[in-house]
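Predict structure. Input: Alpha/beta hydrolase, 260 residues.
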Amino acid sequence: MREAWEIVTSGPPDATPAVLLLPGGAMAARSFDLVMAEPALSGVRLVATTLPGMAGAPIAEDVTIPALSRRAAELARDQGCSVVAGFSHGATVALDMALSGQFQGPIVLLGLSLTPEDEAWFFRGVVRASEKVGRWPMALLFRVMPLMIRSAKTSEVHKRELVEDVKANRAGDALRVSSTYLDYIAEDRDPAALLAASGTKAWVVHAEKGDGGLTERERTLLAAAPDVTLVVLPGAVFFLPDEAPRETAEVIAAAVAQAS
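Output follows.
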């Protein structure tokens, strides 16, 4: 059975700075395999982990975003990581690590949703419906996700691994994790303004279509922040680390350069 906070590493074991990689919802550490293999990150130590409740990893702890943020910050310290990159759910954890002061290094936020308006409407609908009628809408989502993955622009081997990981998810655990995530991004605060004012070196990466996005106000705030770099990849990309590994690796390499 997969374990929560399992790690997959690449690169020289003593290389500095190292990077902690936090995957998106339903995904495991190996979803970053293609990014880790990119030449732009050769010589960099990369540490990918699987969050509790994802890809079959059991839940034995608090899975609110602040709690995951604390545990991820501990893992970053233990592994000597001075850069954190997260995708989707993992990006929200990475952002909280920075805004809470538990992590002071550069962060890369892939497919980040700052507010419910940024998140895909169908995902919000599935989660909130499952809270009311039981977990079957979430279970149905996991039946549909393999179809989405099979149409992704990535290798057949990587597709098979992603499908295996999605099928390993437990609907009840995924609902618990997703509910706390949606509650967190719905809180009455202004995360774009907080990030802009934080002084944290941050890269916020989205595709033109497919992976959520930012509101115009959020984009304007972040574009004006001297420490935030907005990156927009052309075309439609739903799974950024899997469909755009080269571009993802190049952004992470830029963050590593800032931490060196």
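The radius of gyration is 17 Å.
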